[in-house]
Amino acid sequence: MEITWGLLIVIYLFTAGVSAGAMITSNLTLLLGGKDFERVGRWGALISPFPISFGLGVLLLDLGSPFNFYRLFMTLQVRSPMSYGSWAILFFTLLSVVYLYLWLPQKLQIVGEAKALEQWKRRLAKIIPFLSVGVASYTGLLLNAAARPLWAAPLLPVLFLVSALSTGVAAVIFVSAITPWQRARQGELHLLTKVDALLIALECFILLAMIVMGRLSSLSVAAAFGSMIYGQFAFIFWILIVGLGLLVPFSLEYMELKEKFSVRWTLPVTIGSSFLVLFGGFFVRYIITYAGQLTRWF
Amino acid sequence: MTVRMGFVIITSRCIDCDACMVACRAENDVPIGKTRNWVKSSGVQGEFPKVKEVFQPGNCMHCEHPPCVSVCPTGASQKRADGIVIVENSKCIGCKYCITACPYDARFANPETGKADKCTFCLQRLEQGLKPACVQTCLGKSRHAGDLNDPESVVAKLIAKYPSRQLLTYVGTGPNIYYIDEVVPEIPEGK
Ligand code: SF4
Ligand code: SF4
């Protein structure tokens, strides 16, 4: 079969994950870290609305009847992940804009009184994570529901969730390390790097479990996973995802946490490894989307 | 009993003339390069001089549990009470979810309308009491369509008389095309 859902869908799946992950990063650093983690918390909030808005724009371009898209919001089809996912994304995106406003420097907050805004910030930070988990994982359910051998993998939503958290944390590290304004302190980056390394390890584990389960499953499913590990997608899988997207950044982050780099190198390594995590996360969506469509039941 | 519209296709009677594809295109204005139905070849089987090639025509299976319908976010894809699966164009946003979800690749994105497109059982002909265009035109009498639940229908009679198979039953879609591979010398009379 030919490719029905192409790069535009891959971009959407990726950006939705980054936004949800950056949002959770901001929410949790605010609730658990407080003042010490103000910079990464702020950057998470400032980033969050943009990738997903971009992804939604791209998604609209992919529609055959883009002017009909309002039809999505005239109904709720409980059996269609795209239907409840669209609602979740709508609320997520709106709330992420409100949340961004609450993190703006005070002189830019024209509406509202500082103390009330601070309270609202904390309130939202307690609610949005649930929505974010929904946004990050429903894309896995979405592929689950399309009866294709690779997409039938029950761990897909979990893989997408962990990958979303990992790319979200990486996006926050990347931006808050590269910026001249409100640059993150070493302590903040250190903690996020630790979390990201853990998430990468978890992602490796989930990928492994998915592959083992898939290979032990029916012939069609085994063949679909085969296309990833030794078939036409092997290069993307082993080099771009496992190598550059998981093992290299994990090793860099590990050495960084063990303080193997001189001070001069710490920042470039942080920036480099977080970029690689984003890069790998993109190709995770790519390979699942493409290999899923090029393999079929037989 | 409720009506359950479906097809019986006798592979042993198909000569791969592709008239069904032409008839469907003409009847339903299917754009060039896309098709609502097809004839697949088994390829050459066996060894010379005992060789054979089997042709397997197909189209949307109007499944009992159609994944294309359950995934549709707008309710455009529907299964009618008589079992026919259709797309209500005015509701379709062209997200192509249903196309990826069909295990038989029976759907395509229509470049002219921007909507998901597929076999409609020739509803416009059914309303006039006619058979679908592909069935009407089939000169080998390989294709048959009707109410599978009506014992007086040709399709039900064929299924009762000959062993039949469905495609990819383990995916759980409950396809409503029954294939008969045996030689069928006489087509029974019926609705
Ligand atoms: S064959 Fe495909 S398009 Fe037709 S009802 Fe089944 S899943 Fe839907
Ligand atoms: S392309 Fe149209 S019919 Fe198919 S799932 Fe999307 S809205 Fe429904």
Brief rundown of the structure:
With 298 residues, chain A is mainly α. Helices cover 76% and strands 0% of the residues of chain A.
Radius of gyration of chain A equals 20 Å
- In CATH, the topology of one domain in chain B is named Alpha-Beta Plaits
Characterize the largest beta sheet of chain A: strand count, sense, and whether it forms a barrel: none
> Going across the major beta sheet of chain B, what is the strand order?
10-1-11
Classification by helices and strands of chain A: mainly alpha
What is the CATH domain class of one domain in chain B?
Alpha Beta
N- to C-terminal distance of chain A: 12 Å
Integer average pLDDT of chain B: 96
Strand count, sense and closure of the main sheet of chain B? 3 strands, mixed
Strand content of chain A: under 5%
Structural class designation of chain B: alpha+beta
How many strands appear in the DSSP assignment of chain B?
11
Name the assembly state: heterodimer
The helix count of chain A comes to 10
DSSP helix fraction of chain A: over 70%
Helix content of chain B: 10-25%
Structure characterization notes:
The complex is a heterodimer of chains A (298) and B (191). Chain A has a single domain, classed as Formate dehydrogenase/DMSO reductase domain (Formate dehydrogenase/DMSO reductase fold). Chain A has 298 residues and is mostly helical. Chain A has helices at residues 7-33, 38-47, 49-62, 81-103, 114-145, 156-178, 186-215, 219-229, 234-257, 263-294. By secondary structure, chain B is of the alpha+beta class. Chain B is built from six helices and eleven strands. Chain B has helices spanning 19-28, 67-71, 97-101, 123-126, 133-137, 154-161, and strands at residues 5-10, 37-41, 45-47, 50-52, 55-59, 77-79, 85-87, 108-109, 116-117, 143-147, 177-180. Chain B has a three-stranded mixed sheet. Chain B is globular. The model of chain B has no long low-confidence stretch (mean pLDDT 96). The interface between A and B is medium-sized, with 31 and 33 residues. The complex binds iron/sulfur cluster (SF4) (2 copies). One iron/sulfur cluster binds at residues 71-74, 76-77, 87, 92-98, 116 of chain B. One iron/sulfur cluster binds next to helix 2 of chain B.
